[in-house]
Amino acid sequence: MQTFDYKKQILEPIKSLRGAPREEMYVPGHRTCAGCGPALNYRLVAKAAGKHTIFIGPTGCMYVANSSYLCTPYAVSWIHSQITNGGAVASGIEAAYKTLIRRGKYDGPFPNVIVMAGDGGSVDIGLQAMSALMYRAHDVLFICYDNEAYANTGIQTSPTTPYGANTTFTPPGKAIPEGKTLFPKDPPQLVIGGHPAVKYVATTCVAYPLDLMNKVRKALNVDGPTFLHMLCPCPKGWKFEEKLTLEIGRWAVETGMWTLYEWENGEYKYSHIPKKYQPVSEYMKYQGRFSHLKQEHIAKMQAFVDEKIQRVKAIAVEAPLPTPKAKA
Ligand SMILES: Cc1ncc(C[n+]2csc(CCOP(=O)(O)OP(=O)(O)O)c2C)c(N)n1
Ligand code: SF4
Ligand SMILES: [Mg+2]
Questions:
Q1: Smallest Cα–Cα separation from 109: which of 26, 53, 55, 48?
Q2: Which domains does the chain have, with CATH numbers?
């Protein structure tokens, strides 16, 4: 139980894109692919969090392509961790700051401690350290930026890769025509279901920047561990034209392939429920990773999404999405 004032920052909601902070904390100087969803996501998260922030970057595209010698895009503190231990490094940083403050050796604002982990670094190879952080109730925001593959090492399948995707470890062929045969893990449910100290979990997508930045701020304002599952289309891995990153994100939401919601103290609030869901084929048709699929496979995907939509409808309380007043 916290018994001293450790100067937690309180970040105000952002009312419009025009009202978003001008200052960039993720600046030019990276080497990600053109149209990289995770890079845009990083920029928005860093902008929302502001200057009193420490990022922990487990190995993945957002480490390798962002940290060549003497050149990084980070305008705030950033530390690399192994792909397995983002949660452990963040726990140590958070505990060290609290100790310094308690001993009177630091009197600045308590930093936003944010782990920016890929799907591999969060809900697969990094799962143990993330779960331990959540369990011990560290005041850390753990982000899974989800590009639905182990992208940095050549687009291998991960537990969040969708059914039917062609990756270097799930190539379609005569024996397995659909490529990936398994349906993905559900990261928010993993966190919500297993960690009593967690009070706030939400999903976001780069195509909805205002919603994204406000969920980052809300998560950071919570005193304790929080989790964001952020969809980040990856042109290289998903095989689509670089200019379509945001459009693909919107199709993910419009088809129900991705749902935008918040979970707060046991209650679900949906940020955007399409009036009429579009067929999943509308989302898949732009992406080369699905181009080998036959009708029967697409029908299997549609059934999976339909079932998910029914679950959403059963517990949905809809929260209106703030209307952007200006373009990002
Ligand atoms: C213990 C360990 N195993 C494997 C690797 C190789 N490796 C480096 S980056 C990476 C992919 C990470 O995937 P993800 O966390 O989803 O991030 P992304 O590259 O997709 O951004 C892998 C497997 C490693 N660095 N360390
Ligand atoms: S492979 Fe994907 S995630 Fe990695 S830098 Fe390229 S677009 Fe970004
Ligand atoms: Mg990944």
A1: 53
A2: 37-315 (3.40.50.970)
